[in-house]
Amino acid sequence: TMASEAEKTFQWFAVLGDSSSSGAEINNKNFSKLCQDCGIMDGKTVTSKDLDTVFNKVKAKDAGTITFQQFTEAMKELGQKRFKEKSPDQGLEDIFKLMEGKNPATTGGFYQATTAGAVDRLTHTSKYTGSHEDHLDNSGMGIVGWEETSDNSGYGRGHKGAGTYDKKGLE
Q1: Spatial separation of the C-alpha atoms in residues 169 and 167, rounded to whole Å
Q2: What pLDDT digit, counting tens, does each position of 16-59 carry?
Q3: Does the residue 170 lie in any domain?
Q4: Rounded to a whole number, what is the largest CA-CA distance in the chain?
Q5: Cα separation of 26 and 55, whole Å?
Q6: Which of 6, 68, 105, 150 has the most beta carbons within 10 angstroms of its beta carbon?
Q7: Which residue range is the domain that position 53 belongs to?
């Protein structure tokens, strides 16, 4: 059915970047991403402000996420804005059509690129910042001094500066 296709898409986006999510509920950030990636939000009839409004309207008072049931209600409302001339049910169906077969991997390849990139970057920077920070802590002054000495005009200044810094440190 239309709904089960849309629910698949809902689940894909629900777990995006949230490994603890079962896919049964979606947070506001991923709700917005789904609406953007599936073209539900067009920036004209449906804006990101509309998404926030409708998300907060359908969610339980203290909840940070909405269920697919609540999502369906939200989509009925957005369908009314997006497809003004249609009935709520028809608008909802049209929105579900937009969602059919979509997931974060198919919407512009954005998902795959970022996850691969993010993982690379994470492993890379964790190594990098570790050594980088140590380097700064141990010889932070050294780096500053070096940059100033490499620039001849600033050499005297840099040198004096370093001297006074050391004296201050000693007192």
Answers
A1: 5
A2: 988 888 999 999 999 999 999 999 999 999 999 999 999 999 99
A3: no
A4: 80
A5: 10
A6: 6
A7: 2-16+26-99
Residue 152 lies in a domain: no
CA angle (20 as vertex; 50, 28 as ends), nearest 5: 5
Distances (CA, A) of 24 to 20, 36, 69, 151: 11, 20, 10, 60
Rounded Cα gap, residues 74 and 170, in angstroms? 66
Tell whether 57 is covered by a domain.
yes
Distance CA 121, CA 128 (A): 10
In the chain, the number of structural domains is 1
pLDDT tens string 156-166: 555 554 555 55
Q: What is the pTM of this model?
A: 0.62
Does 118 map to a domain? no
Contacts with 108 (C-beta within 8 Å, 6 or more apart), sequence order: 37
CATH code at position 81 = 1.10.238.10
